[in-house]
Design goal:
Strand order of the largest sheet: 2-1-3-5-4
Number of helices: 23
Radius of gyration: 25 Å
Oligomer: single chain
Helix content: 55-70%
Shape: globular
Number of strands: 5
């Protein structure tokens, strides 16, 4: 440990590590982009970015706005999406370094950088452009700025900055609304920060940041509060009924958390955070600050995993402060919150294990290809990121050959991932519409205007239907859809092999002459819409 924390200039070393990591990830993107396609969520949010709005089906609008910016700057290329993720991830990483430095000094900041860099979770944050990228950036920035204000509350410019950061965070993901509550708790539980509660600027900051959501609230009011309904859908427990189900969701959640942060790092984060709660009275204010912004949130999600399935990214922001506290404990800059003092000497094996597992994560996608397992749904964890470019090329070839390509819209009878992947990967990058079997809202595609609002009467539709190997060879086309056109013509099919046992198969039809557009019949009582977003 001394060889790591005893360096003469830990700040320069930490910034050098960050710079090297950025260069490595830029170089890594070259084979990654060549081998893998966008994830379903990424192409879905990219499609949001083509139709900017104040709100969307499942999330606030920030990810759509950022995708729109990335698309316009890069010409709607995959590189633009990947660079967007790396840019926000790197900014978050730098801010976390400065937070650790401000709280405990440059040596702890160096350990924080090493602990966080050597986790698969941080690698994913910088590769995949999802809602967590802007959320983590806003949360980290808010942690840094709010702590500065607890030390010097007279800085008006910092209050303005915090207001903007919180407001942008609220526009990124719903969980950012927890941050102002923690601000109030921190001020209430710590005597040195209690004077904040008596300052009007403190409450003004919180209230004005919430006003950033006004357009989102207005949009939801126009759309039957669909985002609120979707969020509540995440907390349903219809599939978790027995004690074995509860134990299964609990163990699966903990296992994925350990994998995301590597086992030793994750265990030390939990131990220091919950040890800090146990020794709350002995902590100083900066240690309490980190415990408050990690412990309660992690405890809620761990307990929630007993009740239901919990997506592994949900508690991501609470690990930010936990990583700084763990680094401070391992570098002996914080009080000993654990009874096992010798564990403080485990920094080297913790970093070594993190380095090994993170290197394996970086190499694994290509190793799977070398082993001949690429695209296998049982052995390739990234098989959902393969084959979409080929799917788009072949679907685009069908669209180019129809009698009137400029007067033919694309219609997909499938999950929203197929719609968004076709929209992104077809060379024409057309506006893709989705037809569902029932009159329910399952995705943003059911909120956007229908083909009747975009295509003039007499337009044709290129109907694309994926074939499930476990389903019928000839998927049924709803009569309610066929009746809206004059005729139906089967154009053919195409197959994109992913492995010996997995492929993507699509049936292509041409629907001629749109007469009218009508939604499908409403579902029978008791039917539930499919989940359309992983949160």
């Amino acid at each position: 440990m001394e060889s790591i924390t005893g360096t003469r200039d830990p700040q320069r070393l930490a910034l050098r590590v960050i710079a090297i990591l950025v260069v490595f990830r830029l170089l890594y993107l070259i084979p990654f982009v060549a081998t893998f396609d966008l994830a379903g969520d990424e192409s879905y949010y990219w499609d949001w970015g083509r139709r900017l709005d104040w709100g969307y089906y499942s999330k606030p609008p920030m990810i759509g706005w950022l995708m729109g910016l990335a698309g316009r700057i890069s010409g709607n290329s995959e590189w633009g999406v990947r660079i967007g993720a790396l840019t926000l991830g790197t900014a978050s990483f730098v801010l976390l370094f400065f937070l650790a430095k401000k709280l405990f000094g440059p040596r702890t900041a160096l350990v924080t950088v090493l602990l966080v860099a050597l986790t698969p979770a941080n690698a994913a944050l910088n590769l995949l452009f999802t809602i967590d990228a802007p959320l983590v950036l806003c949360w980290t920035a808010a942690l840094l700025v709010f702590w500065s204000l607890t030390e010097n509350p007279a800085k008006t410019s910092h209050w303005v900055l915090l207001t903007v950061i919180l407001g942008l965070g609220h526009l990124s993901k719903q969980i950012m609304l927890v941050f102002p509550l923690m601000m109030i708790l921190h001020a209430a539980l710590n005597q040195s920060a209690r004077m904040l509660l008596r300052r009007p600027v403190f409450w003004t900051c919180i209230l004005v940041s919430l006003l950033f959501l006004s357009p989102v609230v207005w949009w939801n009011a126009q759309h039957d509060w669909i985002t609120l309904k979707h969020t509540s859908h995440h907390f349903e427990t219809k599939d978790v009924t027995s004690i074995l189900d509860h134990l299964s969701t609990f163990s699966e959640f903990l296992g994925l958390q350990a994998l995301a942060f590597t086992p030793l790092t994750w265990l030390f984060m939990l131990a220091t955070v919950f040890g800090g709660i146990w020794k709350w009275r002995a902590l100083d204010v900066k240690e309490r600050y980190l415990v408050l912004y990690s412990g309660p949130g992690l405890a809620v999600f761990i307990l929630l995993s007993f009740r239901q399935n919990v997506n592994p990214n949900w508690p991501a922001v609470f690990y930010l402060s936990a990583s700084v506290l763990t680094a401070a404990w391992l570098s002996r800059a914080a009080i000993d919150v654990l009874p096992w003092t010798r564990l403080r000497g485990w920094l080297r094996p913790t970093l070594l294990l993190g380095a090994i597992l993170t290197a394996l994560i970086y190499f694994l996608p290509f190793a799977i290809g070398l082993a001949g397992l690429a695209g296998h749904d049982n052995f390739d964890p990234l098989f959902r990121l393969r084959g979409w470019k080929e799917v788009g090329d072949q679907a685009g070839a069908f669209l180019a050959k129809v009698p009137q390509p400029k007067n033919t819209f694309v219609l997909v009878l499938a999950h929203r991932d197929h719609a968004s992947q076709l929209a992104f990967n077809m060379p024409q990058q057309p506006r893709v519409f989705r037809y569902v079997y029932r009159d329910v809202l399952e995705s943003q595609y059911e909120i956007w205007p229908s083909p009747a609002d975009h295509a003039v009467t007499n337009s044709d539709a290129l109907l694309i239907i994926p074939v499930d190997r476990r389903g019928p060879a000839e998927p049924e086309i709803p009569g309610s859809l066929k009746r809206q056109f004059d005729s139906l013509e089967k154009l053919g099919e195409f197959r994109v092999p992913l492995s010996d046992s997995t492929d993507r198969i699509y049936k292509i039809h041409l629907l001629r002459h749109l007469n009218f557009w009508a939604p499908p019949l409403r579902p029978s009582p008791g039917l539930e819409p499919d989940s359309a977003d992983n949160g």
